[in-house]
Amino acid sequence: MIGLETLYVAPASLVAHAPILAIVIPLLGACAAGLSPGGRSAWMICVATAVFTAWMSLATACEVMRQDAVVYVLGGFQPPLGITLRVDAIGALLGLLISVVGLLAAVVSGHSLVAEIRKEKHSLFLSGFLLCQAGLIGIVYTGDAFNAFVCLEISSIGTYALVASGGASDRRALPAAFNYLILGTIGATFYVIGIGFIYGATGTLNMVDMAARLAAHGQSAPVHAGFAFIMVGLGIKAAMFPLHGWLPGAYAYAPSLITLLLAATATKTAIYLMARFLFEVFPDGAAASEVFLTWILGPLAAAGLIVCSLQAIFEQDIRRALAFSSVAQVGFILLGFAVGGDQGLSASLFFVVAHGLIKGVLFMALGGLTIGIRARRIVDFAGIGRDAPWTVLAFSVGAASLVGTPLTMGFLAKWQMIEAALAGERYWIAAVMVAGSALTLLYVGRILEVMMFREPAPGAPRAKEAPAGVILPALVLGGISIWFGVDSSLPGQLSVAGAAGLFGVRP
Amino acid sequence: MSWFIANFNYIVVVILMMTGLFIIFSSANLIRRMIGLALFQSSTGLFYISLSKVSGGTAAIVVPPDSAEARALAAQLDPAYVAAFGVKGVVYANPLPHVLILTAIVVGVATLAVGLAIAVRVREAYGTVEAPEIDDLGRSVTEGPENGR
Amino acid sequence: MNTGELLILLVLGLPLFAALLTYAVGSMPDVRETLTLVAGVALSIVTISIFVRIGQGYDVSVTLVEPAPGLPVLFRVEPLGALFAVMASVLWSVNSLFSIGYMRGRREAGQTRFYVCFALAMFGVMGIATAGNLFTLFIFYEILTFATYPLVTHSGTLAAQRSGRIYLLTLVGASVFLLLPGIVGVQAVAGSTSFEPGGLLNGRISDVYGSILLLLLVFGSAKAALMPLHGWLPAAMVAPAPVSALLHAVAVVKAGVFTVLKVSAYTFGPDLIATLTSATWILWVSAGTIVVASFVALRREDLKARLAWSTVGQLAYIVSAAMLPVASGLVAGGLHMLFHAVAKITLFMCAGAIYVATGVGRVTDMVALGRRMPWVFSVFLVAALAITGLPPTAIMWSKFLLMSSSFEAGQWLTAGAFVVSSLLSLVYLAPVALWALFAPAGASADREFIHPGGTPATIIVSLCITAAGCILLSLVADRLADYLAPMASMTLPERAP
Questions:
Q1: For the domain with range B2-53+94-147, which CATH number is right: 1.10.287.3510, 1.10.1740.10, 1.10.357.140, 3.40.50.720?
Q2: C175 to chain A: nearest residue by CA?
């Protein structure tokens, strides 16, 4: 595997500005796409922008491997007073995930849009899509806490509107989007209140500076309050149990492209911010963090994993089942946080990337399958394996990775999580993780069995193979998942470096 | 009593925050929920602005250091306060939280606009903006009068 | 690439390639059948070469990929694995001969899928036999489960689907719930999962933690059919006889006990096993399994069900041997793994032969049937005596070793279970053949053959081969015991590449 540090993918002048370009170009692209006359031209602008963004995030990742962390000062105002972008290993990895998934989603959108969105809205839809991209990359690249809020809201408001656009084909998307808006805004506002408390206690918004000042400041009521508000706010955004109420509705009724984007990237960025605050900003061994990790995060994550896996098993609607699966996997990731320590954190970060890829493949394939037929419940997909073998193959790759079949990235992710729990002597966490994996097997197995081994109901509409523009990106994502399952050096090194970086802050 | 006056801002913040949240969670009507959300967000504005006020601080517009105005402002400060904190010259209130809240207000306005737009679409699709009725309708039919491919 | 690496790649690639080719020529039955036979013979040649090389002291190993640091897909052959590989490949060839007669004789549908899945199952078995660490073994263990599932549900009936579900749920459930956490636990303690002579965990682990890991790993290998995870084996009898013969007498179940033996010998090591409390618990459970399974077999009317329960009991012999606190138990277990496989496959093939020729499956209907099928029932008698361990059969030696190991360990309960079970096996197997051959008259004496000409010739040939094996292997039993002796030693002899 070529080490990223040896790659020079872009001219030095571009690389110097790669972090900010990865945010700004999608913003400009959003304007251009919004103003463009037709769906086709908007799509081409969208794909071109996505390609450029992926290129820039790759350049940033290479730079980060060379340097430990890339700091980009905005507007010439030096930190800690000015706003900076600070990309470390885990930020680079997530940035890669967001831009690659975004690129493949942009390619897929050529076909899936036609099926689900009104024609005259295509350019606006793609414009919103690019806005989300910009916001998401902004969250993982920024080094300033309030800037994170701004980017969080840029992406979230975009997703509220995009989820609502699913109302054209299924009106249940509208109350789901409204619900998502209410809860998401409450979450973001809690985050802002928390930042206010921390700002009041330390006087800075730069996350590295905040960490240094909090270490010196010690414990006090505003710091505890700020911590609590930040964790709850981000918990809502990350769909931590029991704050996940918005997620099933939003995933189930949104256009499949948006579900894809949300599932693969949006909750992951909130988890990233949680990790940042929990392990980097707030001091190690701070009483609040210890109490939170052991008594609140651990049990809630475990409950989320088990309860939502059970709900996924009994759910009839396939997208809602996968949505509950997403909440369960978020619980799994947060259990890794609760283990504490380097190993647990790096395993969790690896799992974050693995899960982003997995859900990306699953929803992409699912979107492809539903282009031709209106299938909502799992039983509607009976026998589809015969009619659309390639699409179901892509879906199966994602499902295999989700279950944890050996030689997929999902398997390695689960292995590392359980190993971290055992090495950290948190045996109850390891037991819960194993139980969760077994439950995952049940609901994924059920879906696969219906798709491949059942006879289609007589008189039901027969599905067609998804167009190549959908299958190929799905297979590419699935292929990445398998490649990382056989040789995980790229995400593995980045997540280990990221975890180490979060624990020992370097400016 | 003096505690109450000293922390009056924060008490109002808490009242507004809880009122806003209560309205959101207890209302059945979507428009009322948006109102609750706006109220909730305004509480954060008040919180930040309260944080930004420094004792004896004036508006954060730079006053030339040696001018008469600067001396007048400095004279108004409590001497014990000046000695305790080593103050030299004019004390300004912190402008940064104001800037932050401007941003947050913009975000809040955008959210409000999107939320109300969605509420309008809900009205078009379901014929009502009352949540229980929407739930009932959602269970029966998924196509509304405005929908179709 | 040296010879060792080449051999391993061959032993894995041959069955895989055969599966692909079989799928390609599926529409030409004669070509397909010939391909299967040729693949079996070729694989046997390769495994015998590996067997010989290991005996000569060469190293046969290769690392394919390393998904994560400390987690390689490693193949490294040692004596037990070499023996298992030879056994599986030779018996695959013989069983293919049998399958041809059976599948054609009954004009079964889905024959291409049958042969393809068989080849894939062999791929899994070869991977398990040559695995150098628990991670690799786990991967191929799962491949074996999924490759054999279509074989269990071959007939497609409702009963077959239900049995298939039990099969899959038990095996996959046990491996995800128990085996995998156990393997991860080994990695967490030792930093690797590789098989080391003398035991990877020896000296590194406490009694409590070690006991828990041992329980997880042994019960997680549900293919060893230790109670209470044995239910899948009788349920899998719904599959056609060739499947039951090879897979559920040889490949799948032996993969399970092979895993237990390797874990005992190379992950824990004889010294550590001697100190673990859960080893004693597992001894009690397997003693119970032996006795209960033998009693249940007595009551079963369906011949294949009777054989399945007999297998459950015999497998528990090997698990007991692995858990004995003496090193010689491991060698005894390895020998019994081989000898029992040969005898059991004979019995299952006889059951299949009877079914093909007459459609009869119940023991009570076989009275006096031997008049019309003398060869088949004579072979059945030989194999029945072999299972019991009467001279001059090979199992006599392995049972002798098992008994002496349990005496050496002071495990009277285990020894008692062995004795009781042997007696019972004589009672539930021998009379079937005896009544068939020597009863004066019975309902089936004049039964018409449903297959013209009685048993197909290929079946008779394969029966004779394995029956001969039951007896001839006793001649080399002591040499095989010497071959397996390094399993129980503390260090690996120096091996040249």
A1: 1.10.287.3510
A2: A438
Q: Give the tokens for residue C313.
A: 């009991």
Quote the ipTM score.
0.90
Tokens of A166: 């699913």
CB C273 within 8 A of CB C264: yes
Binding-face residues of A in 451-490 toward C, CB within 8 A: 485-488
The domain spans of chain B are 2-53+94-147
Q: C416: which DSSP letter?
A: H
Record the pTM: 0.87
Average pLDDT over residues C370-374: 80
* Residue A317 amino acid letter: D
Tell me how many domains chain A contains.
1
At A1, the pLDDT band (50, 70, 90 cuts) reads very low
A335 falls within a domain: yes
Residue B145 has pLDDT above 60, yes or no: no
pLDDT digits (tens, 9 = 90+) for A69-110: 888 888 888 877 888 999 988 899 999 999 999 999 998 888
Q: Are there at least 3 beta-carbon pairs closer than 8 Å between C and B?
A: no
C431 upstream amide cis, omega within 30 of 0: no
Query: A296: distance to nearest CA of chain C, Å?
Result: 25
Domain annotation covers residue A55: no
> How far is Cα B93 from Cα B111, in angstroms, rounded to an integer?
29
For residue A212, give the nearest of A145, A285, A282, A148 by alpha carbon: A282
Q: Give residues 107 to 146 of B whose Cβ lies within 8 Å of A.
A: 107, 110-111, 114-115, 117-119, 121-122, 125-126, 131, 134-135, 138, 142-144
Q: What is the largest CA-CA distance in chain B?
A: 75
Confidence of residue B148 (pLDDT cuts 50, 70, 90): very low
Report chain C's mean pLDDT, rounded to a whole number: 86
Question: Do the Cβ atoms of B103 and A146 come within 8 Å?
Answer: yes
Contact A189 B41 (CB under 8 A): yes
DSSP assigned state of C110: -
Render pLDDT for C58-79 as a digit per residue (tens, 0 to 9).
878 888 888 888 888 999 998 9
What is the distance between the alpha carbons of residues B44 and B18, in angstroms, rounded to a whole number? 11
- Give the residue from A343, A346, A411 with the most C CB atoms within 10 Å of its CB, the best one to mutate: A411
Give percent above pLDDT 90 in chain C.
25
Q: Report the share of chain C in percent with pLDDT over 70.
A: 96
Question: Nearest CB to A486: which of C65, C187, C188?
Answer: C65
Provide the H-helix boundaries in A117-172.
122-141, 145-164
Cα angle C227, C89, C259 (rounded to 5 degrees) comes to: 30
> Which chain B residue lies closest to A151 (C-alpha atoms)?
B107
pLDDT(C497) > 70 = no
Instruction: Tell me the C-alpha distance between B101 and A202, whole Å.
Output: 18
The H or E element that residue C25 is part of is none
The confidence band for B1, taking pLDDT boundaries of 50, 70 and 90, is confident
DSSP class per residue in C50-73:
HHHHHHHTB--EEE---SBTTB--
Asked if A138 and A154 touch (Cβ cutoff 8 Å), the reply is yes
DSSP string covering C113-134, please?
HHHHHHHHHHHHHHHHHHBSBH
Nearest-angstrom CA–CA distance, C300 and C294: 10
Q: Is residue A473 domain-resident?
A: yes
Question: What are A46-80's pLDDT values in tens digits?
Answer: 999 999 999 999 999 888 888 878 888 888 888 77
Burial of A441 (0-12, 13-18, 19+ CB in 10 A): buried
- What pLDDT is recorded for position A507? 34
- Domain with A373 in it: 298-507
In a domain, A390, yes or no: yes
Q: Are A52 and A10 in contact (CB under 8 A)?
A: no
